[in-house]
Amino acid sequence: MTTQPHQILVVDDDRAMRQMLSSLFREAGYAVHEAASVDEALELARSVEFDAVLSDIKMPGKSGIEMVGELRRIRPDTPVVLMTAFGSIDSAVEAMRAGAFDYITKPFEPDAVLLTVERALERRVLEEENRRLRQAVDKTASLGDLIGESSAMREIFALIKKVAAGRSSVLITGESGTGKEVVARTLHYCGAGADRPFIPINCTAIPEGLLESELFGHVRGAFTGAHTTKCGLFEKANGGTLFLDEIGDMGPALQGKLLRVIQDREVRPVGGTQSTKVDVRIIAATNKDLDVEMEVGRFREDLYYRLNVIPIHIPPLRERPDDIPPLVDAFLRKHSDGRARVVSPAALERLRGHQWKGNARELENVIERALVLSEATEIGPDEIPFYADERVTPEDPTEALMRGAAERRLTLHELESRYTDLIMERTDGNKVQAAKILGIDRKTLYRRAARRDPQKS
Q: Structurally, what CATH architecture does the domain formed by 317-383 represent?
């Protein structure tokens, strides 16, 4: 499919300047229109939706600044770049107040003009995408790649609409594969800072020693191999969003340093002595239960409350089967290579009944595999490749303990002993951690051990 060139309008009463600029933009691949006055430009704008307008300020009749105000009533989304040979701070401020995107002063370098207009076009594209995404939330209960029809997902859409424009920290929780990064990106791109950076980092993918340098940067010679000074992700994300995926796996020492940056809003590179102020929205995500992690001492409580200002929990896919049909449709469009492929009602019911341990990521994998293995236009239930269907899923030890206790009619004292044994096993014999999980002090744990029935059945 051929991409249509951007439509640019050049407005200047100086014919030579107008022709020079038109030639410059045509050579850069733009479709260019010309106007010698504001009235002529406005008349063109009523019939053509321009992607950007480049206009002189000083012209006979109406000025370029007056044109900005009138154009905003006709085409409110069209960015205007103003230019003048009589540049001053006052006229720049006046232009911005009128709604101009930017202001350049003659004489100027051609590359500078091209760059300014390119930035205006990028802003327009971002604003259009932002508006489209917001409309998607209102009309179809979908938001970009974030899809769902269940009440749980609709609540998440509504919450995103409320908090996207703010700068408060957000903590997204949910099992692996539920779409935590998709939610994070949606929050960023639905916000006022959609044109600012969105920088993700997986806290488990980088060793902790290197993760500190990635986040905060380092100065030359800070450690072996630091041959040059490096800017950290906090500085790169300044004004935008830093997404800390799998924050629950971050080590305690680095948690403390992260807390300091969040509190002080300034970052100091590894080995450096000077701090830099940063304005970064933090969105963190984890598939761990941070309440448990705090109880056993693996996650700082003060950091948790700094991150968990706005909590968003994504339920597992098995708890929201209403989201499976729209997700299936999306994955079919993504992986069908342009062919019209559908999933039969019987196959869809089979998909709805699956447990989806890998959530939406697993569902996408199954759909892609079915499309590859089947040549049929309609995918039937026998063509859904659940390779793990016949496997026996290991039962959760706690559930097994409770079920076995009920079947064997154990007393509460016997159940208490066996559950204590299980927790001790889970904590590798650490009595401090075990006592915290059990909600008792260590002395009580020792007394239980002393009176425990030695007979193991």
A: Orthogonal Bundle (1.10)
